[in-house]
Amino acid sequence: QVQLKESGGGLVQAGGSLRLSCVLSGRTFSSNYAMGWFRQGPGKEREFVAAINWNGDRTDYADSVRGRFTISRDHTKSTLYLQMEMLKPEDTAVYYCAAKLALIIGTYLVPEDYDNWGQGTQVTVSS
After folding, report:
1. Are 124 and 92 in contact (CB under 8 A)?
2. Could you report the per-residue pLDDT of 4-58, keeping only the tens digit for each?
3. What is the C-alpha separation between 103 and 49, in angstroms, rounded?
């Protein structure tokens, strides 16, 4: 069992930047966790944003954020990051990090792939 805790959300103007963090804790020693960021806007379904494999050498992005967002991880801090640049009002959502114990090294792009979720952090982009 692992726990995920996001932070870094807030209110920002369009064109601005934010960096989200997600700390992974619990029974993670020697476990291979692939991780991802998802978001859910008002009245919308949860959607994929970005994913990273266990050793951090492969990433995937939704088309809507590619070139603006960067996912990364620091194993020494057990932390996942999402650097968000050139934010748009349509990026407004609750952002969730997720972790999957991965037997195969890879990235996972759908919510159903993940076993563990944080509680989310609100990102609001004003126009």
Report:
1. yes
2. 999 999 999 999 999 999 999 987 765 689 999 999 999 999 999 999 998 889 9
3. 22
